[in-house]
Amino acid sequence: SPPLPAGSAAPGPVPAGLVRLYSMRFCPYAQRTRLVLRAKGISHEVININLKNKPDWYFEKNPSGLVPVLETSKGQLIWESPVTCEYLDEAFPGKKLMPSDPYERACQRMLLEDFSKITSLLFKHVLAVKDGQDTTALKAEIAEKFGRLEEVLSKRNTVFYGGDSISMVDYMIWPWFERLEPFQLKDSLNHTPKLQRWMEAMKEDPAIKATITDPQTYKNYLQLYLKNSPEACDYGL
């Protein structure tokens, strides 16, 4: 759906039997929640928000004005992407994406904590390229961090981070790997064959296929986003 800008009317209550996601088509954090909704087969509706020109009513859903936000038919509001994803996993039936073992759950959360330091580096690289800066040192730092992720897969000796099938942490980190090409960082994986194999395996997953954005489309969106264009969130509609 086209993103709702400032001045648009607030949507009505969430219909019974559905959960509503406030999202933005190109946001990697909201994609995490979209992946979990798909993976668990949860009946949902998506309302996109124009993040460059937000409607006033949206701040009543989340005071920070960020996406993703989940809203239930009871009017309950949940935000912060890892929180929304764990909520969906716990509140809805179907395959559990978080491991049942407390230590394995802790391992996934530690990995996610480490990964959150990589996401800021990736965006720093996008801005450095835009400003025409030398990114050699930054690229080396990113490659080193990916090397650590490679080590985790080597030690576990599994295709995915949670074992032989996709689990929560795989979905949590995927959106940034999907964006490596438009971020001009594809070559950062040259020395991480297990990470490359993980990416190829992830691309076969139905939830990934349903939410993936073509690299060229993302590149064009990114150019508008970096110019602060209010049209960025509408790109391609």
Automatic annotation (TrEMBL):
The keyword Transcription does not apply. Residues 17-96 form the GST N-terminal domain. The keyword Oxidoreductase applies. Transmembrane segments: none annotated. Its EC number is 1.20.4.2, 1.8.5.1, 2.5.1.18. It comes from the Eukaryota. GO terms for biological process: glutathione metabolic process. One of its GO terms (cellular component) is cytoplasm. Residues 101-221 form the GST C-terminal domain. Keywords: Oxidoreductase, Transferase. One of its GO terms (molecular function) is methylarsonate reductase activity. It catalyses: RX + glutathione = an S-substituted glutathione + a halide anion + H(+); methylarsonate + 2 glutathione + H(+) = methylarsonous acid + glutathione disulfide + H2O; L-dehydroascorbate + 2 glutathione = glutathione disulfide + L-ascorbate. InterPro entries: Glutathione-S-Trfase_C-like, Glutathione-S-Trfase_C_sf, Glutathione_S-Trfase, Glutathione_S-Trfase_N, GST_C, GST_omega, GST_Omega/HSP26, Omega/Tau-like. Belongs to the GST superfamily. Omega family. Exhibits glutathione-dependent thiol transferase activity. Has high dehydroascorbate reductase activity and may contribute to the recycling of ascorbic acid. Participates in the biotransformation of inorganic arsenic and reduces monomethylarsonic acid (MMA). This is Glutathione S-transferase omega. The lineage of its organism: Eukaryota, Metazoa, Chordata, Craniata, Vertebrata. The gene is Gsto1.
